[in-house]
Amino acid sequence: MSSVYSRIITRKDILPITWINFGRTQLQSSPGVNTLGPFECSGQTAVIGVPSSREDLWRAGHSLSGLYSVTGNAMVESVYCDFTKLPNDSGLQKWIGFVDVKSFPIYFCVERSTTVYNQTRTPIPFDVEKLNIGEAMNLQSGKFTAPRTGKYFFTFTGLARFPGNSSYEYLNCGIYKNGNSLYSRCYGDVVEHSTVSYETISLQSTLPLQAGDQIWLKIDSMSNRATLHGDLKTHFSGWLLEEDISKSLNVI
Question: Which SMART domains match (predicted)?
C-alpha cells in the first residue's frame, strides 16, 4: 500500500529542503519506500518599483490576461499579457506600443503687443500670455526653462517691418538653447521698395532637452531701420512632445 502526503511550508528560511525524516513502520517486517516529490510554489513576490515586464505583473499577483502598462527604458509601454502561461513560457508577452504619459503638463503660447522691437542678440520678451501651463515660459525674460527631460516642439511666427525708400533691408531671428547653440533660423528681406513693407518670418524646431535647459528667441541681425512688429502679430509657442519618463520616476 502506498500513500501520498502533502504539506504546506510557509517558512522560506528553511529552503531548500533536501531530505525528510520518516518514522518507523508499524511492523518490523513491513517495508516502506519514501520519495520526496517536486515542490509546487504559489503566492506572490513583492515587486520593488514600477513593473517593467509581464513577469513583474505576474509576481505582483495579476492573473487576468489583457493589456497592461509597464515602464520601458524611457517611455511607458503597452503590452498584452497572457497569464495562462508561466514566466519562462514563450508568448507570455506581446509588445503593443508606447503610452503617451506625461508626469507634468507643459505648453505655452505668448505674443507681443508692443509695436516695435529692434534689439539684437538678446532674448525677445513677450507681454501677452495666452497659455502657460506649467509656468515654464517667463514672458519678461523671454526664456523657456524645460521642467522635464524629453523632446519639445517650438514654433515662432513674427512680422518684420521695413520702412520705405531703401534698396535692401533684412531681419533674421534664431532659436537658441542655453544661449550658445543655434537650432533654427528664419529670414525676411525686401529689395528696392519705396513704401513701408511687411514680411512674415517663421520657424519650427523639435529639440531634445534636459530638465533645466533654456530656450529663447533673438534677432541675430537686421538692417538699420528694420523692426520686429508687435500688435499681436508675433507669436511664440511650445509644448512637451515626449517625456523621458524614466528620469521623472527614477526607475533607472
Answer: C1Q
